[in-house]
Amino acid sequence: MRRAEVLPVIAWRTWFVGLVMGIGVCLSALTVQARDVHDTDGLALGAGIGMSVGGVGASASYHIQWPERRLSLRPHVGVGWFDASVPGHAAGIAGAFGRRHRVIVDVQLATFGVQQLVLYGEELEDKLIYGIGLAAGWEWLSRSGFFVRASIGPAFAFLPPLYQRAEAYSVNLNLIELGAKLW
Amino acid sequence: MVTVVRMLGALGLLLPVAACTSPRCEPIQGCDVRKASCQREALRVAACLRGSPADTDVDVEIVSYDAFVEAAVREASQYEPTDQDLDVRRALVMFGLSPTRDAEADARRNLAWVGAFYDREVDRITILDRGGDHDRASQRGNTLLLVHEMVHALQGAEGLLTRAARSYEEAFTATALVEGEATLLEDRAHVESLGFPFDEVDYRRALEAFVARSRSAASRAEDAFAGIRSGLTYALGARQLYADYLEGGLAAVRERLEAGARANEALFGREPSPERIEQAIPIYDEATLVASYHFGGALVDTFLQRAPLGFAKNVTGHVVDDVFSVQRMPDGGVVAAWRIRFDPSISARDIVEWLDTETFERPVVVGQEGERELWFIQGSTWSSGVDPEGFMPAPEVDTGHGAELAHPLRCALRGRAAL
Asked: Closest by alpha carbon to B319, among B168, B200, B158, B124?
């Protein structure tokens, strides 16, 4: 009768919004430039579905590259929606190896859910639940700057005390992120 | 030296403030209530939230819900009801407050909503295991339930569970207080263990919703008494104690608890009903009095809400006095009369007019006496010539209400004339 649970990570009904946003960013990227941005430091904008974009949302990151070693570091932030009324946030740093196809390793602090306080059918309060996520995955970056990436890994959510520690372990999933590296 | 004096002065100012605020307690983590460590933790949290020492030693047992119910059904089946039991039950059935007696169904109904209970006689908490997988979500719920029962154990250690009540109404009040405290502290443990500061949460809104839902559930329950016991006692008690808590902290809660049945005034807006049961309703010619009760505002309200279209107002806090009298007629029939007096905020005329639009399934004789008093009379023997007006006080009787009660009673016979 009076239970409060962490909501599911991503509301399925908002996936469509993320896909539309991602496609829009990609189309704009394809029309921006033709020069090779594989090896340059630069800003990238994206959109997608996953923890790194706060659920369904957008991201911004800055590539710092060492082309001779095919290494790069990419601090990133993301904002989005967990549900229609619940905002999500993420911030982290990813490392990558490769040029066109890249292996990525990511660590981030992100929104992992929302804790609702419901007593006797009355929703009294809610607050975001944050957590730390690790992820490994793949990124494809075209010469023009278009990118698509996905990653998965373990996560640890900072749950309220009522939850047992074992419940805090979950999955850090970045299902898909599309976008463009602008320069 | 001056500094020390100033510090002591500041401490002196702070102490009353500290006494009015509740202690900060480490929140509880969901655990397996079958484990001793979990039980100790629940006791620690309950004692801390209550501001009492956790020095009681409580046994906790977990038994199968099905086995427990079966045992209760067997025990209930073996009980031979007295003639008085049967007559009272018939009266309650006629008023639509209870279903026809069925020992097995009664036992099952009374346990249907129970998850755990504290037995003060053996100082033991029994948790009824309803099967299912003891997953973490259910463990969280059971942990909070155990905190609730540990509060009762601490109440028992202080002798708060053994106080006698003189009437159903007083028993209701006493139960509402102990269940109210346990509910309040369980909810506080719940709120804080989810990371929300209790004092910043709109708990009053939650309790108002709890009262409304419980009132509605009681009006729809097959047995009004079980319906009230399973929800309304908790809700009304918690609402009252939370109001006390906001006013004076744990000390005010403790004071209310120690007042026991004398807390009627807070719960129902008046002192406990005066002990004049025998005189309150005349005994009909040749009838014998079986039993009389003060049921109180909660049951009166539930009764009025059990009609197809419930009365528009909540009368719980507005019943000044009531007497429910069960009488056995010479032919073996049973007649019951319920005399209810309201405070000035409730008009008896409004209720009578509302009843004109209602259809009770049972024959109901309604008498209005002045603006504040109503009679409901139901009988199994109308057909044998009993005149319901025989239960009404004669107009010349001084009822203490002044001249307005000198009018003849207005009676209306509703429904069929016999059961």
From this structure: B168
